[in-house]
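User: Fold this; tokens only.

Assistant: Input:
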Amino acid sequence: MAALAGKLLDKKGARLPIIIGIIASLTSLILMNVLAPLSNLAIVLLYVLYYGGYGMCFGSLMTSGLITLGKASHA
């Protein structure tokens, strides 16, 4: 998901991949809680959706945060 988020980040800015990632993660968490007795396949698919959203959000947040740092703060 980082590659997709990076492409969206380059074209549209940091806001879109962060929002998509948060929505995907929250949707999967809500579905896991609402549909408590799930099959193994459903758990795996919702888990993939959760971490896909997490990957989109985290990579974009890190990139956006590093852009705001000055040259003196870079490693």
